[in-house]
User: What shape does this take?
Amino acid sequence: MIAILLTDVPFEQDIRELFMAFYPGESYTHTPDENAMIVFSGYPEGDRYRMSVSVSGTEKAAFSSAICGTRSETKNKLKRALYLKLSEITGKTLPWGTLTGIRPARLALDELDRGEAADDVKVKFQEDYFMTPAKADLCVRTAMHEKYVLDRFDYRNGWSLYIGIPFCPTTCLYCSFTSYPISKWKKHIDDYLDALCRELTETGRWMKGKMLQTVYMGGGTPTSLEPENLDRILTCIEENFDLGNLMELTVEAGRPDSITAEKLAVLKKHHVTRISINPQTMKQETLDLIGRHHTVEMFIEKFHLARSMGFDNINTDLIVGLPNETLDDLKNTMEGIKKLAPDDVTVHALAIKRAARLNTKKEDYADLKCTGTWDMINLTASYTKAMGLEPYYLYRQKNMAGNFENVGYCRPGKEGLYNILIMEEKQTILACGAGTTSRFVYPGENRIERAENVKDPALYISRLDEMLLRKQKYLAK
Assistant: This one.
């Protein structure tokens, strides 16, 4: 256990996350505890923060950090000082250095937008945040790709739409997303779609005259719905929105066991431009273990089916660090993906969230080892490069195994546009459906407001009026 004891010192979350990076898997307390392995304390004294780190009751380091300049500058100085001490104590360095936020590419994008040269930004990140040259390069390369794409968007008159389908064939072992087994909702799907289409209709009325630029239908697994239900939603979109400026229409067909030729035909009929078919791994034992009810052969079959029906922008999601997987297992997965030549590969590092069964029932899975390593991350980077794919979006998550990152790689021109928009939060995104979050961006004000829809589909249906009213208030601002 690690005790973090602060007196009038801000940045508690940043301090805790830096400790988490050096000591993964440890628990934390913010009150004195005699069982704590490490005690970190801090307090202000004049124009400095005085801090100390004790390990097993013995003080290992006492140091200070200046309080100066802006809040951001003070925070970065404190984190640098703490990083150096923790690195000294543990003998470790971190590839991402002091950065603990979820959007590292945004820092690089801000620098590029200010006119800074890419090489200068890389040097700055190595010096200011102690990033490794490889991570500084990844960060800047991703930001350059983002900048190229984002310059095509209208932030004042443009907007994007997210549609949430909170149903899946089954719930995966590691999953914490809002999703419910489709089998339990079969009799009430029409009720959910009635509410969803009403919300879409109202949204179309509110946004009349604005430029809808991307649409993303996710979940859950949208293709867990029947073909006629998919047709109903996509028809509702066509009837209620001006699609003349649409740059992308994505539907997640993530679970291969949910895909049929009939469903893909519906997507083609409605001019869906991008789909996801997600294997997560090409090791059958792992698929069985995590609750994916498809086989490796089924994934390959459904990928080829989509290609044969004319889908020319297919994403595949992979997860590094799945239980009991080795570097050789991942290499086998990457070889299989390379043969299929998808247009977009998203590499996720396993992040075990609080709501995931792998966490809530951890005693049942005590013998499983989540073995993600930097060798695995580097392997995926080398394979995607060999496949001609470039990084175009990047984010990190709390509880991510090994302090890694998630990276989206794509062929030039096959970027998932919505993915970039949701990461950089530069455009308003209205979200419809249970468990979704709308983001209202106010250009020029450096302000973003959020409005959440309730997660439970039954509550979403019964409380739709109040959620519609909340969105109207934000749009009126």
The longest strand covers residues 58-66. The two ends are 46 Å apart (CA to CA). Confidence is low (pLDDT under 50) at residues 353-362. The first helix runs from residue 12 to 22.
